[in-house]
Amino acid sequence: MTAVLRLENVNTFYGAVQAHFDLCLDIYPGEITCLLGGNASGKSTAMKVIFGLVRPRSGRVLLAGEDATQWGTPRRVAWGLRSVPEARRLFPFMTVRENLLLGAYLRKDRRQVAEDLERLLDLFPRVGERLNQAAGTLSGGEQQMVAMARALLGKPRVLCMDEPTMGLSPLWVDRVLELVQTINRQGTTVFMVEQNARAALQIAHRGYVLRHGVVTLSGTAAELLDNPLVENAYLGGKAI
Amino acid sequence: MIGNLYMLTAIGITQIYGVAGVVNFAHGSVYMAGAYIGWMAITWLHWPLVPVILLVLAGSALLGLALERLAVRPFARAGSTILLLTTIAAGLIIDNAAQVIWGPQTQALPNPLPQWHIRLGAGTVSLLDLFILACGVGTALLLHLFLYRSRAGWAVRATAQDRDAALQMGIDVNRVNRYSFALSGAFAGLSGLLVGLYFSNIYPTMGASATLKGTTAALLGGLGNVPGAILGAYVLGIAETFSVEWLGSSYRNLVAVLLLIAVLLFRPNGLLSGRRALNPEPTAGTFIPHGRPLRFPRWLIPASAVLAAALPLFVANPYALQVLAIGWVFALMAVSLNLISGTTGQISLGHAGFVTLGAYATAILTSRLGLPFSVSLLVSPVVAAVIGVLLCYPALRLRGQYLAIATLGLGEAISLIALNWDSVTQGPLGISGIQPAAFFGYEIWSAAGVYWLDLAALLACVWAVYRLSRSHLGRALRAVREDEVAARAFGIGLARYKSIAFGVSAFFAAVAGVLLAHSYSYIAPDTFTFALSIQVLTMIILGGRDNVGGAVIGAVILIVLPETIRFLGEYRYILYGLLLIGMLRFRPYGLLNSTT
Ligand SMILES: Nc1ncnc2c1ncn2[C@@H]1O[C@H](COP(=O)(O)OP(=O)(O)OP(=O)(O)O)[C@@H](O)[C@H]1O
Ligand SMILES: [Mg+2]
């Protein structure tokens, strides 16, 4: 099986500070892959490297085997990457509907988009109730739903999510992760950055653990769940 | 009607701000260029109005694109205050290029529309008035449709609200930037043409007031808010019309400037801000990138001072001495501005205001009250510093672009007050017959005498600034520059230290004003203009941040170079503009600083 999205020996710097050391990631089609790690371990930076918002000093980004390291962000999006960014990043002064449709900005099939929107709203009933509200006035959980729906409307080949459960109550955390699983079962490849390690591993197929920019552990989700090191690092009592 | 004219400008400025995050100070220059393009088409080609308008739209859109490519895109990551400077520099280049190409004189712009009028109540409305109204409303409507109904318009709005998120939607934000500059350039050019038709004449510096009015209107409405800009334009237009009626037409610009300052102080997010919270400016205390002064041997500074002092003994040419003397005065201004911008990290675009204050203070004290020069040399700067600090104090809590615009407005306000306060300043006539500098009855006439006087003032200033920067006060000022939040946490009273920096700086700038007033023997409200403020700022950017020696050398280079190379004289301000952009692009830490 070839990876649909791959980071190869990526070294990223912010000025003199190195954020990634020979980072390698493989995301396989049809799976949920999660990237775990504590604060400031370089997870969001990995997301930025994938989207071309930060250029690594060395290493490659491969999309379905093709070298995309030099591509600009819009081209990567056109290829099929979609993101649910850290802290959602909705367009606050635009309505929910406008936000959703911007997710389909690059799609030419207008009519199909309208149909897909209808279908998506079945999955996100709360979003459907608020189509004409300014996105900036939604609650955090609602914003998360809109951000996910916005990304899905772009028909992603790989859906990338940066801490989709951040700042949500336990009830909403479950709701969001359940949705991720549903989306994945319907055929979307998911790459997810998470701090809720156990909950994330329970729905994921594969996981990586990042620490100070270095991958310290990787394997199938089941392996990681059983690994006492992960247990110590992230799952020890207080993380849940 | 005036409101309509401002509306187009304000929309353009607000639009650019929203997308590129910069207040585009070259907007007025594109506006002027649009007017000239229209003028050429009407008077040389005798085209009818509609093709003229199309040509103006196309031409000024192209100019907007060029502006984006050369003065904005290379600096996209440099921060909004740098962008403000690069657009100002671009404006300077365009304005002065226009002077070289079309000449500095006012040109008549005939109105190609039929000359008929409609009676309407008390007044009459001409076809031109209706046409302007139609253009204003029409473009506002088209813009609204574009922004809210078209795909490209959505991309523009999304980019304005969150650039990185827009990228992740697949929006090519560079292209959105280009569109916006082209669009706002087209607006600027069209409004330049319409204003030219309205007043029947055009001139190369007509853009300056357009930028000012457009920025005021855009700020009134809240930067980045298009409907707000329309409202702001009408508020400004109405305020001006009434004040012209009550006070006289010379108050037109003063009202706009005062409104600008008031809105910055009281409603920096615009009149509608209750409804629409704007992000705070990032903490941009430092706008000139960090650098470390190059090391020179300790004896170099006293040695060069002695050399400079001895120069008149060897150089007999009075012209050379005059040029150098002016160089010293400008160095004085640069060193004083360096205290605000280099050491304390606050941008100031109103330095000419302090110079004007000093010059007027001494003119009034010596000519009217008969004070001797030697007394006035100390008293006038104190007066100027006190007035300067009182004026600036309320603005000191602003940061970044907002502070830049406020200081610009204050500088303008000072010269506009000088223009309008006839009984004290003799208004536009200016004050002439100012006595030459004199000590104890000995007048200083010779070029060498003036040279030594100016050099002595500069050395005194350098010495004072040097002592100051080594003191506890100097360290506190640097702390303010490096991190306002941390400085406050350490108990450094920001407003107090900033006003000390502005006060000391105003004092020395005013000394420069005193020296120049007595050597020119004549001053007027427009002797020391905004261009001077930019010139001085260029000097310290050339020399390097927080580098006194650099400021002196930057000043001497920028004064001496255009004088010695004759060919450069005419293109002086173009040179300044190019230097400013070039330095910010390729060596932002200055000639005499190195990177850390
Ligand atoms: N724009 C930036 N400039 C400088 N340093 C940065 C920048 N963005 C991130 N960093 C640094 O890079 C490191 C990794 O940051 P990153 O945002 O990738 O962490 P993260 O794993 O997403 O953390 P969190 O879980 O808290 O979101 C941090 O030390 C951070 O300070
Ligand atoms: Mg993160």
Automatic annotation (TrEMBL), chain A:
<keyword id="KW-0813">Transport</keyword>
<dbReference type="InterPro" id="IPR003439">
    <property type="entry name" value="ABC_transporter-like_ATP-bd"/>
</dbReference>
<keyword id="KW-0029">Amino-acid transport</keyword>
<protein>
    <submittedName>
        <fullName>Branched-chain amino acid transport system ATP-binding protein</fullName>
    </submittedName>
</protein>
<dbReference type="InterPro" id="IPR027417">
    <property type="entry name" value="P-loop_NTPase"/>
</dbReference>
<dbReference type="InterPro" id="IPR017871">
    <property type="entry name" value="ABC_transporter-like_CS"/>
</dbReference>
<keyword id="KW-0067">ATP-binding</keyword>
<comment type="similarity">
    <text>Belongs to the ABC transporter superfamily.</text>
</comment>
<dbReference type="InterPro" id="IPR052156">
    <property type="entry name" value="BCAA_Transport_ATP-bd_LivF"/>
</dbReference>
<dbReference type="GO" id="GO:0005524">
    <property type="term" value="F:ATP binding"/>
</dbReference>
<dbReference type="Pfam" id="PF00005">
    <property type="entry name" value="ABC_tran"/>
</dbReference>
<keyword id="KW-0547">Nucleotide-binding</keyword>
<dbReference type="InterPro" id="IPR003593">
    <property type="entry name" value="AAA+_ATPase"/>
</dbReference>
<feature type="domain" description="ABC transporter">
    <location>
        <begin position="5"/>
        <end position="237"/>
    </location>
</feature>
UniProtKB/TrEMBL annotation, chain B:
<keyword id="KW-1133">Transmembrane helix</keyword>
<feature type="transmembrane region" description="Helical">
    <location>
        <begin position="321"/>
        <end position="340"/>
    </location>
</feature>
<dbReference type="InterPro" id="IPR001851">
    <property type="entry name" value="ABC_transp_permease"/>
</dbReference>
<feature type="transmembrane region" description="Helical">
    <location>
        <begin position="352"/>
        <end position="371"/>
    </location>
</feature>
<feature type="transmembrane region" description="Helical">
    <location>
        <begin position="250"/>
        <end position="266"/>
    </location>
</feature>
<feature type="transmembrane region" description="Helical">
    <location>
        <begin position="403"/>
        <end position="424"/>
    </location>
</feature>
<feature type="transmembrane region" description="Helical">
    <location>
        <begin position="444"/>
        <end position="466"/>
    </location>
</feature>
<keyword id="KW-0812">Transmembrane</keyword>
<keyword id="KW-1003">Cell membrane</keyword>
<protein>
    <submittedName>
        <fullName>Branched-chain amino acid transport system permease protein</fullName>
    </submittedName>
</protein>
<dbReference type="InterPro" id="IPR043428">
    <property type="entry name" value="LivM-like"/>
</dbReference>
<feature type="transmembrane region" description="Helical">
    <location>
        <begin position="532"/>
        <end position="561"/>
    </location>
</feature>
<keyword id="KW-0472">Membrane</keyword>
<feature type="transmembrane region" description="Helical">
    <location>
        <begin position="53"/>
        <end position="70"/>
    </location>
</feature>
<feature type="transmembrane region" description="Helical">
    <location>
        <begin position="500"/>
        <end position="520"/>
    </location>
</feature>
<feature type="transmembrane region" description="Helical">
    <location>
        <begin position="377"/>
        <end position="396"/>
    </location>
</feature>
<feature type="transmembrane region" description="Helical">
    <location>
        <begin position="573"/>
        <end position="592"/>
    </location>
</feature>
<feature type="transmembrane region" description="Helical">
    <location>
        <begin position="179"/>
        <end position="199"/>
    </location>
</feature>
<dbReference type="Pfam" id="PF02653">
    <property type="entry name" value="BPD_transp_2"/>
</dbReference>
<feature type="transmembrane region" description="Helical">
    <location>
        <begin position="122"/>
        <end position="147"/>
    </location>
</feature>
<feature type="transmembrane region" description="Helical">
    <location>
        <begin position="82"/>
        <end position="102"/>
    </location>
</feature>
